[in-house]
Amino acid sequence: MPRAWYTTDRAQSITRRLGAFLGVILVVWLLSFVPFLAPVYHGIRSAVYAVSSILGRATARLFANETSLSAQLAVCTDRLSIETVKAAAVDANAREAEEWRTLFGYIQRNQTQGIAARIIARSAPTSSTVIIDRGAADGIILHSAIIIGEGVLYGTVESVTETSSVVRLTEDAESAIAGAILGKRKTIGIVKGQEGALLSMDFIPQETLLTIGDVVVTSGLDGEIPEGLVIGTVSEVVATPSAPFISAVVALVHDPREWTSVLVIPPVIPPL
Questions:
Q1: Among 71, 107, 163, 210, which residue carries the largest CB count within 10 Å?
Q2: 191-to-178, 187, 213, 227 alpha-carbon distances in Å
Q3: The pTM is what?
């Protein structure tokens, strides 16, 4: 006759182990009432709780369903996008603050009067114009010089509305500015815009000695743009012995795409 399940060797072994486990728990619980053993009891209990917590979190991650993981990934992606936008805004504000600091330094050193403005729109690369947020209502007039950095000529005001103005950059093909070589006041010429980031300085007297790296500035002879504003540096000299004039290729000292803050200086001789 077969033995009952509780009389089998396996059942008896399980029963003995369960009884031993419960006995250990009972003994540990009773030890908590012994004053000098209470700290040991609490230490064991804290360790058991810590291990249980770690095992619980690991189990949750192991058996987390795909939907839960996707939701967590979406939250992390959104947070990353928000932080990226914040970082970009901080970087843009820092660049603009540096531009204003440089312009303010130029104003202080040269005792220059002008109107601060911001670039709010840029045209296609072929026309080389920008729009600033100041217009006739702010005192802007035609042919005003636009300055960036520490006295670098950015362009001139081409047209004006009540609240905004169009600025033609120095590299525009229709731009023509009276120029000179810094330190050589007798070296005059006309600086014209070209396609790309290079300018040309034409009508320079044949006897003029030019060197690569000479700084080209405004001469002030056109009566509109103040004298001494930096235009660029000579990168190449083009001379023909039989011609009455020589030319020079002028490289810009700035990237027009990097600036957002400008100073508008009115013409030396206001237009009629």
A1: 210
A2: 6, 12, 16, 14
A3: 0.62
